[in-house]
Amino acid sequence: MSVPFSRLPEEIFKELARMELANRGVAKRFDHILDLAYGRKGKLKWELMNSILSDPTAPLPERIIPTVEKSRPPVYSAELSALLMSTYSHKKKPLTRNALRSPPTLPARANPESDAARLLGPLSKRRKVNILWRFYTDQIQRVYPPLQVAVESGSAGETRYLTDLTSLKHAGIRAVGMQNQDILQDIQSLATHHTCLANSLEDQEAASPSPLSSSHLSPRFIRRRFAHLLGRLPILTYREVLDTTAQPGQHGGKYRVSISPSAIHPSLRFSPNHLVNAGADDIAWFESAQLEEKMRKEFSKQQRAERLSSGNRSI
User: Domain of life here (predicted)?
Assistant: First the structure.
């Protein structure tokens, strides 16, 4: 039995309205659709996050309340810790490693040896558990999950980034997100694709069709939207390091977070990839502005000297 269209939930109508505005070229609504499609928000985000919210290799933390099984503190996996401490993946201010060990929302009374604990009494263990889990839940909502993890391989001169499952297994790490599906590469190509003008009819026929040519929206608009999306797609990279304390069969390494150089992100505003070389007109304008500023300062200095001398004569 079909449900009448008028009885559809209100949220569906809102989503249809957002899609209509996105098709009209409203940047905010277009970004909303991209965020849903690539797991920056919504159900897909948490499906991508599930793979890094647990750490099967970490030992089970001890209970804060000995008789309560659910009183164990949260565990920050290596991948999640790297994301929480990076400005590229955290929506707000990234955390420090000390904040992961002891959240800033935890009162000083949590330390039984502190002055506050001796003066006011120790913090309730149940309250400590609630604070730890509330902080953990709040922080995982503020990070963007990666689409994949790459293994950094090779020397400094010839660095390669491997995303296939065999390389991950050899490095001793797990796959995350949409591993080995080349989705990130597709987004990068859409964010950097430029329409080339062919010089001849033969070149036009040989040229591959632009993936943006079939859209009624301008290619520049679509490129910028995907470039903004790249700014919300952290790239998680694993680099193996020599660990003499590791047991046989164990791997030592470190995760780091970066973003594509083609991304539009506040931290990349003044990066070389986003700066344009100054031309002759720009240099002339800059020199003219410098000269004008110098003349203005000299004129102000001369005026102050004249006022000072006139004041001395009147005295």
Answer: Eukaryota
> Which is higher by pLDDT, 315 or 222?
222
The answer to the question of residue 32 being in a domain is no
HSE of 25, CA atoms in CB hemisphere, 13 A = 10
Radius of gyration in angstroms for the set of CA atoms belonging to the chain, rounded to a whole number? 28
Enumerate the H helices of 162-274 as residue ranges: 165-171, 183-192, 201-206, 219-230
Burial class (CB in 10 A: 0-12, 13-18, 19+), 170: middle
Q: For residue 32, what pLDDT band results from cuts at 50, 70 and 90?
A: very high
Which one, of 179, 178, 173, lies nearest residue 55 by Cα?
173
Q: Are 107 and 137 contained in the same domain? A: yes
- Same domain, yes or no, for 165 and 105? no
Beta-strand pair 160-162/235-240? unpaired
More confidently predicted of 203 and 194: 194
Note the pTM of the prediction, 2 decimals: 0.74
261 found inside a domain: yes
Residue among 30, 140, 157 nearest 95 (CA): 140
Q: What is the 3-state secondary structure (H, E, C) of 278-309?
A: CCHHHHHHHHHHHHHHHHHHHHHHHHHHHHHH
